[in-house]
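TEACHING EXERCISE
Course module: macromolecular assemblies
Task: Read the component lines below, then compare them to the predicted structure of the full complex.
Student: A.B.
Group: 4
Components provided:
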Amino acid sequence: MAFFEGSKMTAGYGDGPDIISSCTINVDKGEIVAILGPNGAGKSTAMKTMLGLLNLKSGSVLINGEDITNLSPQDRVKKGISFVPQSKNVFAELTVKENLEVGAFLRTDKLDKILNDIYDLFPILEEKQSQIVGELSGGQRQQVALGRALMIKPSVLMLDEPTAGVSPIVMDELFEHIIKVKKTNVAIIMVEQNAKQALSISDRGYVLVTGQNKFEGSGNELLNDPEVRRSFLGA
Amino acid sequence: MDFINAIVLLLNYTVIPALTYGSQLALGAIFVTLVYGILRFANFATGDMMSFGTMVAVLITFYFQSLGISFGFLPTALLTIPPAVLAMIFYMLFIDKFVFSYYRVKKSPPVQLAMVSVGVMFVTQAIIRIIIGPFDRRFFDGEKFILKANEFKEMTGLNEGLTIKSTQAITIFVTVLVVSIMFWFLNRTKTGTSMRAYSDNEDLALLSGIDPKKVVLITWIIAGILATIGGVLYGLDKSYRPFVYFNNMLPIFAAAIVGGIGNPFGAFLGGYVIAFAEILVTYAYKKFFAYLLPEFMEPDSLMQLLSTDYKFAVSFSILVIVLLFRPSGIFKGKTL
Amino acid sequence: MMQHKNIIAAYSIMILLIIAVGVLQSWTIALTILNYCLISAVMTIGANIQWGYAGLINFGIMGYTALGGLAAVLVNVPPVKEAWKAGGSGMVVSLILIISGVYIIRTVLRKFENSKKRNYIVAAIIIIGFVIVRYISGPAIENIEAIDPAKTGFLGGLGLPIIFSWIVGGLFAAGIAFIVGKIALGLRADYLAIATLLIAEIIVSIIKHEDWLARGVKNVIGLKRPVPYEVDLQGSTWFIDLVEKFHSKKLDVITSLTERQDVLNQLVIDASSVYVKLCLAGLFLTVVIILLILTQKALYSPWGRKMRAIRDNEVAANAMGKNVVKEHLLIFILGSAIVGIAGAMMVTNDGLFTPGSYRPMRYTFVIWVMVIVGGTGNNFGAILGGFVVWFLWVEAAPIALFFINFFTAHLEETNAVKQHLIQSAAYFRFLLVGIGLLIIMRYRPKGLIPEKINIK
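Instructor-supplied answer key:
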């Protein structure tokens, strides 16, 4: 039994058709899991369903053995699930420090220690703590976004295309940060377009096609699977 | 000496009135901008909501006066602000529950909410007129002047007198106090930060565990405080008349947009920009120049750019100019 | 087919209501209401083609109504020759200066497109131009306003029949709408609402305070009607004969000759005012029908389809190469022009121009309630909205009075609450219209008669 699992999830937007059907994804603490697949395969939908942004038609979501299928996103956040959306993932009008403080909105204890932990992970944020986030560079913003999500000391971190629209150098840096986060014993799920790079840092990966699990395995297995290579990795 | 006379003249007829009027506008403009930033609609019931709060204050003032309760040299109305604020907040929350919340939950476009606020405007006007009537009412009592023109002349030996009405001093003092507390709250407290976060990026705020219901509740509470105090101060300084309050909505909107809508500090400054523009453009400078210029150059005309009839038109023209050249406002607000 | 039945039913009820007023209150009141309903209908057609066809919020209805009224004055009033002699030349020179100033600014804006100095140059031209114009026009205005200020004190108009002003009013409104549209279109919807409202306030305050133009708040009275006057009718034999014939049964019962004459006189007086109002109603109805035909034709034309496509998805329409800004400007001008026509019609109906009465409540917000209540995007709905809301607006006070008396029947006449409520009866119109709007928006967001065509 994995730490966080969405099992046999079927869901769609409103009354529309099912985007994902009987899709299963799980992740353990200290593990990075990548969700891959072609456009429209339902990668982001699967993740948003696990967060509770979409209603399940069937299937269930469990964390640490507890059924949270019927909880709202806000309540799932309280269970320690953090999410970084693909776009608009920072408060652009607030300072770096305020972004982090809002991230810790649900905490009632003193923030000094957790803030220091985040500054240790992302030193640049300490340097720029009183700057307005809207004025930062793309890579720095992504760090703010990660930092905000980590402020509740989540046990699960979900990233929706963290590297979309950043330069290759920034991408490498970001992945390094994600690995650092993983080492703090967090379960990480990420949806990625850059499949090769994502798999290279992932422990496991899922390949979705038309909303269903098509392949799964460790990062290396998938990278070396000839069919996966042919259909998704472009080589 | 002439130079000092000229300065005192300007202070007396432009700066002090503009600071007073600007404060009254600023409170309304922050109200507009908060509702716009957090509840995401242009509230056309602004003026009438301010009128509602003031009406309650006026009624309680009359009641207190009939009981013989007074506030010494200060106007009795100041005592009535807390209950009036409570009534205002209660009314706003009532309206929100039965009118606005439905559209908010449905995520209706802002235009629809603006249109709904027009409905609220009609209803509020009706309630006010049915309760207190459309007439002009003065409810100021207490000491009228802090500094009288004659006293000032005697004190300084100048030709020009400087008058400070107590309502002017009260307006400026109370505004500074209220606005400072509000900015402290918005910028320095957890709840305030969460409100700004909600205004900036609603979805992410929800994902961070911010409770939207609480944000909306606190927004209306602050709005109620600002609306009532702004309305009472205006009424003390001039007088309370429902139609005038409805009309005041227009320069208040202008101030909020000029300051950059969604930006409370911009709205605060916007109030003064509008007030100073209105008063400086419509002031007759004849006497001012008469002090400064040698006798043979003294102007014959009033030296007035526009007649005071165009007071409102000035603020609206500023708005048009701002919309043309800096649509997000002088102090940068949400992009249009 | 359902739709047609609904429309016919709704209009029948409306006509029955007006007839009920005629029977219960008086025919003069019923026809006054009808005429205002028709004028309101023209306004709602104007607002509806902006909001319903294109999704533009124009809260400046008040301004265009006032411009239409101004046109009525400028067309109908005979020119005041002394005033022209006293200050006409100054005003003409000022006008030429203003026009050339605008022209110069345009050229500067074009020539120095990328120069930082541009704004300073423009500002300098405006300030200098302003001073010069004030220097020239100031004395001219003083002279004009000094000419018999109790009666004239303004330049007067052209002395043409007032009916021409309906067209001129439309043109005035269209001209200003062009400028306003250039400034304000492209703003987000709620900003557009605020901007147009404030600009309308500017227009009205100019009309109110430039006395040389149309006497400002001193009002212009005695505008000439396009229909006969009551006094003339009461003196003409054909009309008296007509009334006699119409009421012959009633008159035949009366035997005393003098009594018969008295009754006939009263009937003639009543009938003359009804006749005048009927003539006006005929004229107004003609305008409504013409506009309805034109707007319906436009709605179903390729152009109408294009407009709705833009309204429903501006981004997609833009991507498809539709020139959204240009189309918006066009529809903004057309809609405003129709409102301008309505403004001129209203002054024609009243026979007087009272700039002080142009207030946003009555001339912007009530009109908007009409459009939303009636059904946005549907001209039949918009016109119905004009009828229904105007009817409620006028009849709210009597209805409220009835209910107040009903519910406070057990209280004594001297009861303070009862007296207060009776005095406040007039304000229940705000309550009625406001609650009506809120209920419609909540439970029938598409209005009484919803738009028929749905583009998916």
